[in-house]
């Protein structure tokens, strides 16, 4: 699958995005984590406000990519490109999708910083509309969790995922690839995660990995597979 690699943004809007880096009060508390998010941050990485609290820390993204080595990966909610970059280093092909053209522009910039932009097909579009035309070996799902407030919930439920509930997302992913990886909040209801495996017939194998950065648990990754991923 090939896609137009460059989207056009108004110059003024892109400049405003650059100014978000460390200056906004909303993201200043994430500033000290910048090298955990992107080790090459100082070489030209750009993020919007949402990217600061939603991008997968690089250490975790690397581990997730290692499980997909040599395969075709569909990154369904690619955001500013944290996972996309690591997939591009190790996988045979990567399709990165986001409905927000600003995020796609940022992801392309960040992929250039890491020297992997030519290994990714970037698509601006709604994943749910594009899904019928997608095929791959692995679907990677890291949908919005609803912002930083997810931490205040004792047990995070599948219906809290955005823009649709986790069950719907998973069923669509099953139509694209036999293996699915979901990046989820650390307080997610694990019983509901296990239920997802049974949406396939026969049920998929499930492995749950706790993700730590700097000794602190950040999230979990759920690996669903018909074979070992």
TrEMBL record:
Coiled coil start-end: none
Reaction(s) catalysed by this chain's protein: a 5'-end (N(7)-methyl 5'-triphosphoguanosine)-ribonucleoside in snoRNA + S-adenosyl-L-methionine = a 5'-end (N(2),N(7)-dimethyl 5'-triphosphoguanosine)-ribonucleoside in snoRNA + S-adenosyl-L-homocysteine + H(+); a 5'-end (N(2),N(7)-dimethyl 5'-triphosphoguanosine)-ribonucleoside in snRNA + S-adenosyl-L-methionine = a 5'-end (N(2),N(2),N(7)-trimethyl 5'-triphosphoguanosine)-ribonucleoside in snRNA + S-adenosyl-L-homocysteine + H(+); a 5'-end (N(7)-methyl 5'-triphosphoguanosine)-ribonucleoside in snRNA + S-adenosyl-L-methionine = a 5'-end (N(2),N(7)-dimethyl 5'-triphosphoguanosine)-ribonucleoside in snRNA + S-adenosyl-L-homocysteine + H(+); a 5'-end (N(2),N(7)-dimethyl 5'-triphosphoguanosine)-ribonucleoside in snoRNA + S-adenosyl-L-methionine = a 5'-end (N(2),N(2),N(7)-trimethyl 5'-triphosphoguanosine)-ribonucleoside in snoRNA + S-adenosyl-L-homocysteine + H(+)
InterPro entries (UniProt xref): RNA_cap_Gua-N2-MeTrfase, SAM-dependent_MTases_sf
SUPFAM superfamilies xref list: S-adenosyl-L-methionine-dependent methyltransferases
Pfam annotation, one family: Methyltransf_15
Source species, domain of life: Eukaryota
PANTHER family in UniProt: S-ADENOSYLMETHIONINE-DEPENDENT METHYLTRANSFERASE RELATED, TRIMETHYLGUANOSINE SYNTHASE
Family, similarity comment: Belongs to the methyltransferase superfamily. Trimethylguanosine synthase family.
The protein's name: Trimethylguanosine synthase
The organism of origin for this protein: Camelina sativa (False flax)
Gene label: LOC104757426
């Amino acid at each position: 699958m090939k896609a137009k690699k460059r989207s056009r943004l108004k110059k003024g809007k892109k400049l405003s995005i650059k100014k978000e880096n460390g200056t906004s009060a909303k993201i200043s508390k994430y500033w000290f984590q910048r090298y955990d998010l992107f080790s090459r941050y100082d070489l030209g990485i750009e993020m919007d406000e949402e990217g600061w609290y939603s991008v997968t820390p690089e250490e975790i993204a690397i581990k997730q990519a290692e499980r997909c080595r040599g395969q075709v990966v569909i990154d369904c909610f690619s955001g500013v490109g944290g996972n996309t970059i690591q997939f591009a280093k190790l996988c045979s092909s990567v399709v990165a999708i986001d409905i927000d053209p600003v995020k796609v522009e940022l992801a392309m910039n960040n992929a250039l910083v890491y020297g992997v932009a030519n290994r990714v097909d970037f698509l601006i579009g709604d994943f749910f509309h594009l899904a019928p035309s997608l095929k791959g070996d692995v679907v990677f799902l890291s949908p919005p969790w609803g912002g930083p407030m997810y931490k205040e919930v004792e047990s995070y439920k599948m219906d809290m995922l955005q823009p649709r509930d986790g069950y719907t997302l998973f069923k669509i992913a099953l139509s694209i690839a036999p293996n699915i990886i979901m990046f989820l909040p650390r307080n997610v209801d694990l019983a509901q995660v296990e239920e997802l495996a049974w949406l396939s017939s026969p049920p998929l194998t499930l492995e749950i990995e706790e993700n730590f950065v700097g000794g602190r648990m950040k999230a979990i990754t759920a690996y669903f597979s018909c074979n070992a991923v």
